[in-house]
Structure formats: structure tokens, C-alpha cells
């Protein structure tokens, strides 16, 4: 899947569904960072402070949905997720993020937090 390296690919953005801390489904859009066909592994990045990290730790089963409007093609995949934080894989991934991308993860407020206004 070439979507990981192609900023214009419709498959670069996908829906990731987890089981929320309250037991209800949670879905959000994430960006595909890497795909390894031989092992069927996807890589995404996330802010460690986001609730999905704890959701995945509690219940690692997830589902991903890719949608390509031009081809009218939907791909769904299910599997288990591993969180990498503070390990060698996380450090390598962080080093590969450009400066603009790093700013997305360096905010004072955690993702999904209440900003106190609309």
C-alpha cells in the first residue's frame, strides 16, 4: 500500500475504531505512517495523552476502515495493536517526524480535552 508515503492518497487517512473506556465504540481519523505488506502491519502515530492509548492498552483489538472515493472502494481490517512509547521504535518514529509534525504533539493540552469554548 503506497498510501503511507503519498500525501495525496485517499488511503493515507483512515478511520480507527477502538472500544472506549466506557465500553462504547470510539472511532477517529488517523494518518497511515507506514505499511508492511509481508507482516500486514500498519503504523500510525498518536499523542501519548490521548484516550485511545489507554483504550488500546485495555482492549488491543481495533478495526481500521479505508475509503477511496474515486474508486468507490472500502477496505476494512481488524487486528491487535501494540503501543510503543519510550522504546527504540518510538524514538525512531519520533526522529522521523518533521518539525511541523512534532508541533502537533507538543501542545499544552491533551487531544480531546475541553478548551472551554466552541
How many E-type strands? 5
Q: How many helical elements?
A: 3
Distance between the termini: 38 Å
Strand order of the largest sheet: 3-2-1-4-5
**Main sheet characteristics:** 5 strands, antiparallel
Q: How much β-strand is present in the residues?
A: 25-35%
List the uncertain runs. none
Helix fraction bin: 10-25%
The helix/strand class is alpha+beta
| Whole-number mean pLDDT | 87
Shape: globular
Explain what the structure shows.
This protein has 118 residues and is an alpha+beta fold. The protein has helices at residues 51-58, 88-95, 99-105, and strands at residues 13-19, 25-36, 41-44, 61-68, 73-80. The protein has a 5-stranded antiparallel sheet with strand order 3-2-1-4-5. A hairpin with a 5-residue loop joins strand 1 (13-19) and strand 2. The longest helix is centred in the middle third of the chain and has 8 residues, at 51-58. The mean pLDDT is 87.
Provide a quick synopsis of the model.
With 118 residues, the protein is of the alpha+beta class. It has 3 helices and 5 strands.
Features of this protein?
118 residues; alpha+beta; five-stranded antiparallel β-sheet; 33% strand
List the helices and strands and how they pair.
Layout: E1 13-19, E2 25-36, E3 41-44, H1 51-58, E4 61-68, E5 73-80, H2 88-95, H3 99-105
Antiparallel strand pairs: 1-2, 1-4, 2-3, 4-5
Amino acid at each position: 500500500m503506497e498510501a503511507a508515503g503519498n500525501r495525496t492518497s485517499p488511503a493515507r487517512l483512515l478511520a480507527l475504531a477502538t472500544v472506549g473506556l466506557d465500553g462504547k465504540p470510539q472511532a477517529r481519523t488517523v494518518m497511515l505512517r507506514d505499511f508492511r505488506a509481508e507482516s500486514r502491519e500498519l503504523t500510525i502515530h498518536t499523542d501519548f495523552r490521548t484516550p485511545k492509548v489507554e483504550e488500546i492498552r485495555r482492549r488491543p483489538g481495533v478495526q481500521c476502515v479505508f475509503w477511496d472515493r474515486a474508486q468507490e472502494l472500502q477496505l476494512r481490517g481488524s487486528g491487535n495493536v501494540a503501543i510503543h512509547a519510550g522504546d527504540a521504535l518510538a524514538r525512531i518514529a519520533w526522529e522521523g517526524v518533521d518539525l511541523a509534525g512534532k508541533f502537533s504533539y507538543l501542545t499544552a493540552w491533551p487531544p480531546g480535552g475541553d478548551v472551554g469554548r466552541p
